[in-house]
Amino acid sequence: MKVLVFHIGSDRYGLRLGAIARVAPVAGLKQLPLAPAFVAGLLDLHGAPVPVIDLSQLAGAPAGQLWFDTRIILIDYPHGGALRQLGLLAEHVLGVETVADNALAGSGVAGAPFLGRVAGGEQGMLQLVEPDGLLTPEVRALLFAEPEPAL
Prior knowledge:
This protein is mainly β and 151 residues long. The chain is 7% helix and 46% strand. Strands 1, 2, 3, 4, 5, 6, 7, 8, 9 and 10 form a 10-stranded mixed sheet that branches. The relative contact order is 0.23.
């Protein structure tokens, strides 16, 4: 399988290419008051607000720095029977690598449902990020709140 490789701290992670809608450069984000610390803010994507989460903070590492190779990875996230755009702020996006399915081991990390199986290789260990486990139901409700109908 092909994965987009990036770093959280000094560790390598990958996201399946099939989960990615597009990759965008970092842009200014509108902050969301009262949101969890790992919510980086809202991205204005052609006039539509897209919530962005900081993968570093979600993983318990310090907030990601903005580097030349920091990107916002946009995925189609299932919510309420539809697909919604969700941005993932990722440091040091390195590019695409091929990971053999039989090279993946383990079943993830207890307490971190977004972290999947791990593969070793010439470049070092790489752990998969599983989009379905990124957000709790409470955070999904906060980020994808439906607007009140107009009277």
